[in-house]
Known about the structure:
Layout lengths: L2 H8 L11 H24 L33 E6 L9 E6 L7 H51 L8 H27 L2 H21 L16 E3 L6 H9 L10 H47 L4 H10 L1 H4 L2 H17 L4 H8 L8 H28 L8 H37 L4 H5 L9 H23 L12 H4 L1 H14 L7 H15 L8 H11 L2 H15 L14 H29 L2 H26 L2 H26 L22 H15 L3 H4 L8 H33 L11 E3 L6
Antiparallel strand pairs: 1-2, 3-4
Helix pairs in contact: 2-3, 2-7, 3-7, 4-5, 7-8, 7-10, 10-11, 12-15, 13-15, 13-20, 13-26, 18-19, 19-21, 20-21, 21-22, 22-23, 23-24, 24-26
Amino acid sequence: xKFGKELASQMVQEWGEAYMDYNYLKGVLKDxxxxxxRNAAAAATRKNSLKRRVSMYRAFSGLTNRLGSPGSDHxxxxxxxxxxxxxxxxxxxxxxxxxxxxxEAGGEYELVFFRRLDDEFNKVLxxxxxxxxxxxxxxxxxxxxxxxxxxxxxxxxxxxxINGAQSQTRRDSAVLIEAKSxxxxxxxxxxxGEEVAGTTTMADQKNTRNEEEKTNNFTDFRxxxxxxxxxxxxxxxPETPISTLKNILKAxxxxxxxxxxELRKAEERLRKAFMEFYGKLRLLKSxxxxxxxxxxxxxxxxxxxxxxxxxxxxxxxxxxxxxxxSDEVSRLMERTEATFIKHFVNGNRxxxxxxxxxxxxxxxxxxxxxHGLFSGCSIALIVAIIVSIRASYLLQNEGSDRDRDQFMxxxxxxxxxxxxxxxxxxxxxxxxxxxxxxxxxYSFIFGFKQGTELGYRQVLLIASGLSVLALAAVLSHLNxxxxxxxxxYKVLSESVPLILISLLLIITFCPLNIMYRSSRFFLxxxxxxxxxxxxxxxxxxxxxxxxxxxxxxxxxRSFEFYICYxxxxxxxxxxxxxQDSDVYKLFYIIVAAIPFVVRLLQCLRRLFExxxxxxGLNGLKYFTTVAALVLRTLYEQNKGTTLHVxxxxxxxxxxxxxxxxxxxxxxxxxxxxxxxxxxxxKLLVPNKAVYFAAIVVNIILRLTWMQLVLxxxxxxxxxxxxxxxxxxxxxxxxxIWNFFRLENEHLNNxxxxxxxxxxxxxxxxxxxxxx
Length: 771
């Protein structure tokens, strides 16, 4: 693999613009090489006025001078690299290269090369310095957090046998309690304005702290000082329903409770913070290594093309700069490893390193094998179903209208649910494939646990396995015969769809470590956050899942039909009266509106938290969608001219606003002044026609929902089939939307260099109360 491709494959995509532009510099070298070839060809056609080469007239340096001697160091010197201090910034110089051969023919090309090389190096160096300073600040904060955590451990766990420190620990705990009482007294004095008494109390507090620090000196063991807990409060964020309600009611208590539950919560938060911090250090070290290697590669290419020896001087400068000589990141990594192993895995190095450096998941051949097997079985079952329908003339033979209607009204909705799920999974597998192909960091954006995210092969395996079960059940239903005496079907055979959906739910909620448990629980957690909206803090996976559910309205209604059909219908005779029930009609509207209401509540939560007006407009969009959905459903149930006009009007408004929002806001396209006309400045798909095709397809598929309210008659299709086809087209549209939505999100992260999750720390360090 060429180095340019290797660099692109290993770089942190969110930091892509901060890496050395290797391909651009290689293009400049191609210009130099092209000029030298043209110059050599022109020289060969010229008459040779000299019989000897020009190099033979060069000054003789002597026979005794050896390579590397003081006299030869500057003989072939090509460049001089100078460090120039930036104005107002001490200790952060920029580097400028002086090309000494600019007067030669073609020297202007090489001069341009070194100018661009300096620009790239200074860019890389500036970014690296900023990131090192950032991790240095984070390391200081994590150190304070660890001091507070260790002190909290001492108070809560009261260690009794640590090198004879039992009595000292008790004295420290007593000192802490006494100090806390002093702090409470200070608060009361500050409220009453008694400044003199307050000064006295502060003096007592300082004496208490000095006394505690004196008693902390052990011969063999010195526990962490407990005074760090004086100014520490619990960091409570409105992320969960309880914390959100407390925040709304202003009843949030940030005082430390000194109990095991508080300790476990703090340990878990800090554990995650250390894992994220270590991941950032690893990528920062990789960033340093890849860029150093890139400069080495490009300089060696320059030497090879120009037959000069400039790489040694330039690379010596790179090695002496912060990029090559700073080992602060390596030291931080070592200290982070030692801290994590000691304090979070009880000294087990193997376990600690497996957590900090999870292994890359390998693709297993059996996944591809079973996916191929299930796919082949699915195709065979589809062919068998078609042949069975044609053979029995279920849909075409005279007198079979009643059987056809009975099947479409009662059995078809049961199995269409599985079709919607499988189709959505197929589209999701396609999204994953193209996200990986165009290096969209979907696992980071969604917040998947490293090493547990599903690849497209795993998703295809699940989809094909589910399709085999569903298609086999459909085929068995087609071949079932009614008992001529009772005119009913067998209970077990008619319960196949119910058994299948029950099996699917059992596997989804199974707590055992089988069938991608991490991914299943991630899905359940996001679904629970959607159900409890707006009590949970809204993250991208939550509203992304809610958007998926808005495209699964018919699947959600199929769940309602399951309850009605098997609970109140006569499933043994394949008949039901669900559509005639007012309660069923009411819930038919409610369950379809739930995903849109969830998105509305999520938008409102983000509007109040982030103060983003776009979230308010987005919420208004979902409100109009709910109105259009309700009116459309009421028209289907009751008909009427007024309802028809209102349904058409609201559906038209919703279609226009949703289409505009999809293309302009979610995808970031149709930017008039962008580098790519009517698209956006940055595109990951090289073929621009793909974006225009996606815009057209999105508009067409959005308009298909108007069929439900315009009520065009399609004589050769049953109404249930028309609804299912439109639902499938909406799922396809959502799959296309997913790719471009996440591409836009990825580019936004790249533009802000966001490559890590922000983990909330457990403690807040308050300022001195005397101030």
